[in-house]
Amino acid sequence: MQINEAGNSPKKQYDAGFQRSMLQVANEGFWEWDLASESFWLNPFFSRLAGLSPDESIVDADRFALIIHPEERQVFFDTVLAGAANKAVTTPSVFRLLSTDGRTYWLESKSRAVDFDGNGAPLRIIGHITDITQRKPADEQLKELNRALLAISKGNQALLRASNEKELLNDICKIIVEVGGYRMAWVGYAEEDPGKTVRIVARAGADDGYLEKVRITWADDEFGNGPTGRSIRSGSHCVVHNMQWDLSFEPWQQEAIKHGYASALSCPLKNGQRVFGSLTIYASTCDAFDAEESELLSSLAENLAYGISMLQNRSARQLAEEELRQSEDRYRRLFQNQHIVMLIIDPESGNIVDANPAAVDFYGWNHDELCGMNMYDVNTLTPEELTPLMQHAKRLDCNRFTFSHRLANGLIRDVEVVSVPIQIESKPLLYSIITDVTDKKLTEKQLIEGNKRMHYILATANAGVWEYEIETKTTIWSDEIWRIYGIEPCSCEPSFENWLEIVIPEDRDAVRHAVHDALANGADFTAIWRTKTTDGTIRWIMSKGTPFRESDGTITRHVGIVVDITDRKKEEEKKQQLETQLRQAQRLETIGTLAGGIAHDFNNILTPILGYAEMGLLTFADDEAGQEYFREIMLAANRARNLVSQILAFSRAQEITPSLVSVPAVIDEALKLLRPSIPTSITIDRKIDRSCGNILADPSQIHQVVVNLCTNAYQAMDEAAGTIHIALEEVVPDGETLKALPAPHADRYALLSIADTGIGMDKATIERIFEPFFTTKSPQKGTGLGLSVVHGIITGYNGMITVNSSPAKGTAFRIYLPVIDGHAEHEDPEPALATGNASIMFIDDEPASTRMITLMLTKLGFSIQAFNSPLEALDCFRKEPFRFDLVITDLTMPMMNGVGLASEIHKMRPDLPIVLMTGYGRDLENIKAISWHGIRKFIKKPVKMSELSSTISEVISG
Prior knowledge:
Elements: H1 10-24, E1 29-34, E2 39-42, H2 44-50, E3 58-60, H3 61-66, H4 70-84, E4 91-98, E5 104-116, E6 122-131, H5 135-161, H6 165-178, E7 184-190, E8 198-205, H7 210-213, H8 227-234, E9 238-240, H9 253-258, E10 263-271, E11 274-283, H10 291-312, H11 317-326, H12 328-336, E12 341-345, E13 352-355, H13 357-363, H14 367-371, H15 375-378, H16 383-395, E14 399-406, E15 412-424, E16 427-436, H17 438-460, E17 463-469, E18 474-477, H18 479-485, H19 496-502, H20 505-521, E19 525-532, E20 538-549, E21 555-564, H21 566-619, H22 625-650, E22 659-661, H23 663-674, E23 682-688, E24 694-697, H24 699-717, E25 722-731, H25 735-740, E26 749-756, H26 763-766, H27 786-796, E27 800-805, E28 811-820, E29 839-843, H28 847-859, E30 863-867, H29 870-879, E31 886-890, H30 898-908, E32 914-918, H31 921-927, E33 935-940, H32 945-957
Parallel strand pairs: 23-25, 29-30, 29-31, 31-32, 32-33
Antiparallel strand pairs: 1-2, 1-6, 2-3, 4-5, 5-6, 7-8, 7-11, 9-10, 10-11, 12-13, 12-16, 14-15, 15-16, 17-18, 17-21, 19-20, 20-21, 22-24, 24-28, 25-26, 26-28, 27-28
C-alpha cells in the first residue's frame, strides 16, 4: 500500500475507496481510523464480531472505544497513535473485544498510518485484527510454566554458585517470588522435638509477620494437617487449591486471607529417603498450582534438597565440587530437568552410572542401590534382547524406545526411553530420559473402551452419528446408522443421494429443502422423515446437525446425530388418542349434565300431569269412560317417568341399582313403546324364548339397549320395506366365544340378537361404530352416542356385543349377558291411599305443582297452606311456628333452596319433620349428609298420590 503525504488528492481518494471495497468482501477483520473526523470504519467481518448491525459500519471514536475492554482501552489507543508516528512501522497490540451479544474475544491488532498531512502528522490509520481467543488461555498457561521453568533455571544457577546453606535458601525463596511471580515462599526444617515443630530457616515475599503469628508443625494434628506438615509426613508434594474452603487449612485461614494468600504448594526436602524439611509457596490466586506446575516446582525442591545435602556434607564438599566441575554439562542438564526421571548408563556393560532424585523416587531404590544396579535388573527384556538396542543407541544422536521397567516394589511400568550418547571424561555413556507412559497407555485403552461404550450407548439409544465434509462432499456414517436406515453395512457409499433413497418419497422434498437451507445459511439442521425397512415396516427417523466452524469462522463441515424415534412417535400418537378420548369424555359429561337438567325440568312438568291424572281416576267410577281416559294419561305419564329415569341414568345423575331382570318382559315393553314409531312397511319378526333365564342389570338400561338397536335397525331401512328380526335364547358359549367374553365367565348366557335387512356397513365403518360421536346418520337422525352407550352398558354387566354386517346385506347385533339364577322382581301393587287431618306447609316455586299438591292433599283430608316463595313461607312460619305438623318443600328454588329453608325452620322447631322433594336425583346424593336439619324423607318427582300419602303417614306417625 503506497503512503501518500500530499494531502487529500484524487489519487488518494481512489486508493482509499478501492482499499475499502476490497476490505468489505474480505473474510477477515479490518478497521480504519480517520483522525480528522474522529470516526472509525469497520469492515463487515469486524462488525459481526463486535455484534454491530450492518448500518453501524462507521462509528465515532467514543462508540469504538466502548467495544474495547476498559483494562486495555487506553493502552490500545496509546499504542496505535505511538506507532502511527513512525511511518514505516506496523504496530501490534492485544486487547479484549466486548461484543454486544455479551461475548468477549481476545484480538490481536496490527496497525499502521497510511496517510499524513504536510507536517507528517498521521491522518488515517488502518488495522488488521486476528481472533486469538482460543490461543490466549494456552499462552497464559505457557507463561506460567515458563516462569516456573525460569525459576528452576535461576534456582539451579543459585545452587551452582551457593557458598553456604543460608545464602542458598534465601536465594531460592527470592527467585521463586521475583522470577516465579508467587506471593511468598519459605523453607522450614522438621525438628525432632516432641511437638514436631517446623523451624523457619528462610523466607521471601509478602510475609509481614505471618509466619510468626501462626503455628505450623509436621505432627498428625490440626496444626500439622496443612500442606507443609502433610508434605513432610508423606514425602510428596501437597496442594491447597483454595485456602478459604479447604478445611485442612482452617487453623491459618484468617491470617492467610489477610495477607492475600489464596492457594499453596508444599514440596518435601529429602536426603535419600529421609524428609528433613519443606519448601512452601503461596500464591495470591486460587488454583494457581496445576499438576504440571506442581511437578516443575517439586523438581526445584528436589534440586534445593540436593544442594542442601551437598552443602551440609562438609566432609564431602571438595569431592562434590570436583565432581560438579568434571561433569558440569551433565549436572546442568540434570538440574534443569529434575522433575523428569533421568539415568546415566554405560552402554557396554549396562551399568547405571548415575540417577537423579526423580529416578530414585520412581524406581523405589535409594540412590546408592540404583547406581549399583544394571539395566538388565530393571528392564524386563533379556540381556540378549537389550544389548543390541544399547549399542544401537550409542551410535546415533537420539533414540526412542518403549520398554517395561521393573520397580523396587515389584510393579511393572510401561516407559518411553529417549537416549542420547554423551562423553564424560572421554568415556561414551548414554544420557537417558525415562517417561512413565503407563497411565497414557491406560488412557488410550480407556479411550478405545470409551469409543466402544459410545457405540454401545448409541446402539442402545437407536442413535448414530454422521459427518459431512463440505469441501470434499465426503459423508461418514457410524456403524449404527446402517442399522437404523435398514441398509446392509457398507453396501453402498455414504452420501446425500443414497440417504435420500431410503427416505420415503412423500418426505424427500422436505428433507432436501432442510439440508439445502442448512448448507446455504450455515445453520443448524433438523429433519424428521420416514423410512421403510426390508420387511415393509415404517420407521420414524430424526436427524439433527450443526455446522463446525474453524477459528476464523469458516464452516468446514456439518456433524450430527440420527435417532430412531418410532417408539416416541407411537407414544405421541397414544397421547393424542388419550387426549381425544378425554375430550370425548368431557363432551359426554357436558351432555350428561344437560340431560340431567332437562330431566329435572321434565319431572317438574310431569308432577302435575301425574297428580291430576291420579285425582281424575278417583273422580270416575270403573265403568265410566272418563276413567279410561285418565288411565291412559297415567300410563303415558308413567312411561315418561321411566324415560326420565333413563336420561338420569345416562347422565349419571341417578344411582343405578342392578336387580334380576326378565329380558323377555323388557323386550315386550320396549317393542310396545317402539311399534307406533316404526313404519308399517317394516315387519318385526320375534323369536323369544320365554324360558330364558334372568340377568342381573338395571331394567331401564336393558330397555335402552333394545330401543337403541331397534331404532338403528329401522332407520337403516329408512322408508323401504324390510324386517327386523329379534331373537332371544339361553345358550352355553363354545370355546371360541368363551375366550372373547370378559372374565369372570358364567355357565349360561342370554343371547339377544337384533338384525335388519337394511343397507349394512363396510369394514371401516364397523371398526368405529362404538366410538362416541361417530355416526353415519344425518344430524337430524343421530348424534353418535347410541352405540357407545350400548357398548358401555353391555360390557359393564360382563357381557359382550358383536356385529356382523356387509354393504347391502343388512346388519346383525348379538348380545351375550350372563344368566343369574333367581326370579325377577315384580312391581308391588299400589298401596292404599292414606288420609289424615294434619296441617301441612308446602313450598314449590312451580305454581302448577303447588296447585296440584294442594288439591291432592286437600282431597286426602289434610289441611295445607302452599307457597311459591321460600321467603314468604319462612315469614309465615316465624309468625306461627306451632301451627304446622309437617313441612314439604322443593329442593331447587330461587333465593333460598330447600336445605336452607329446612335449616331455618329446624332452628325454630327442631321436632318438626320435613320432607324434601327434587326432580334431579344427583341432588339427593349431595344432601344426604345434612339430613340432621330435620329432613326425615326424600321424594323424587314426579310424585304419585299414593307415594305422597304413605310418606306423610310414615313421617307424621314417627
